[in-house]
Here is the input.
Amino acid sequence: MEPAAPARWVSVVAPDGTVEREPLSRRRLRIGSGTDVDLMVIDPHVSRLHCELEPTPVGVVLRDLGSTNGTYVGGAAIREVILHPGVVAVLGATRLFVETDAPVAEVLRFGSAVSVSPAMGAVFSMLEKLAASDVTVLLTGETGTGKDVLTRAAHEQSPRAQGPLVVFDCGAVTASLIESELFGHEKGAFTGAVAERAGAFERADGGTLFLDEIGEMPLDLQPRLLRALEQRQVRRVGGSDEISVDVRVIAATNRDLAAEVAAGRFRQDLYFRITAAVVEVPPLRARPEDLPTLIEHMLEGRARPTPAAMTALAAYDWPGNVRELRNVITTAVAMLDGDVLDVRHLMFPATGRKERDLEQLPLAGRTLEMIEKTAIKQTLDQEGGNKTRAAKKLGIAASTLYEKLKKYGLS
Here is the structure.
């Protein structure tokens, strides 16, 4: 049996100090001084239909419904905002705030990596323990999950923190140069070798060598890599001397190395050598609870995302994981003309969209007017308020859209 979802309530403090507490169990809770609302407020400064609260996957959205005197959070008039538990909203002389019985998620940190996910917490804990040793670690997981960030954190928390961290990307060096780049070469060893050069193993002496995308290592070079890992000695291309190196190795791959071994593309003995400790880094879509924390961390206080923007970010599948999220946020910040990040600032590749059929949406019991109003509002938000583009996307004339905006109080 799945655990019950956390319960949420809204508490309304009237001008006379009385408190009314209402569960947020319905899709929307309309608040105002009229008789046709879900929660009536006795306050002369509150409109008949003043605002509404909508529970969503990214939090409880507080939305002003065109009230006369406005809805305020933190002293600023809002149109729409995510109302976090304990944050007070002001309507006239009335105050309201959201409560929940969900435990406050602790932000976990490992170096510059942050998470509230139990799965990532387990990764952090394992790497913290492994950091103290010289055990070879293999980080597995999709591209963009942050394996390089975790490697840096493990190095910084290790006894080798004062030594170098050398990153060698096995997939970024051409096959003809990989041997030289990894093990070094002597002067004159090949055409273009005009001076001796220390390879990645030598440069990492006393520190950590990060072998990124080790699954891309050419098969014919894997025996030399295995020897270097086992003996902690390397011989430069064109050289005859064995050079001892004191390195701790962390490797990473987005491939299934066991399948690569079975296919004959990766040596079994090397596989066993680098899998002394295997840490799997989960993709971002498997830990959606991390999105708000990561976004806040990446924004660094430069902007605040609107609920519509957060909903759009939560609806995306993130095939590029945390790296792609950082790219989207960085681009959005560059496009800002203020400190509010909205849907129009977000640029996604089409491949990560989560498309849902209308038949899958929870529309049962909704009035046609409610569905139409929501479709219009979401389309306007998506088009950044541009009514001409919104009308075109909705398949109606601009004049019809203006009539409906007036009808639903959206103009």
The CA atoms of residues 301 and 339 lie 9 Å apart. The two ends are 46 Å apart (CA to CA).
